[in-house]
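ESCALATION

Customer reports they have been waiting on this structure for their group meeting. Please prioritize. Original submission:
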Amino acid sequence: NRIHPQSSIDMRGLFVTGTDTDVGKTYVSSIILRELIAAGHSVGVSKPACSGAVFEAGETRWPDLDQLAEAAGLSDIDLICRQRFQASLAPPVAARLEGRQPDLSAMQDNLLAWESRADIVVFEGVGGLLCPLTDKDSVADFATWVGFPLLIVARLGLGTINHTLLTNEAAKLRNLIIAGVILNDAVGLADTPAGRTNFAELANRTDVPVLGIVGRGGQSVRLRDHETPARIDWSRLASSRENFATSPE
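Update from on-call: job pushed to the front of the queue and completed.
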């Protein structure tokens, strides 16, 4: 079955996507969850599918889901994601290796279950925006159905300008609203030439807000530059498609 483009979801939220896999979507999503909870919000978290299991002491675990559950104060990863696959591959590819197919309805139900339980939902996508989610649908198709503004997580360093601008264009072609871009310094490139110039170059080449840079070691997002600690108002950015344009500045 295909995703219907029209959504009737009555929730506020952010759809966290990335310019690629392993750019830090889960890391940034966890920061957002903690800061929203600290601000007094009732917060939900959902992920349509999760690939890439680890095996520890005879137990199968999904580190991304464990990290999200810890940030949200949840003990059951089923509340976040029921479509879990062992191989570190796109969900439909990983599913085929297990003789399965991704269940689109289960992905949607996981998100809808938060409708009466949370006032803001942090939804983390899979891979990049055009990553396959089912045999027929991409993450972008799911983002269109959800209707939350996109928060694009990009890798700080060489190559991120191209990847980020391509992601922005793909989102705009689908009329997706972009709340902004976060640069994630996952491997300590802030003091390299690319790391020092990424923020300004992206800000000059797109009308999408470049919101800040995430440093290493569990720091909060730093707004606008490498030095100034500041908090982003995630609650303001988290909204539905219908009211995002009228959210206060």
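Sent to customer with the following note: The mean pLDDT is 88.
Escalation resolved.
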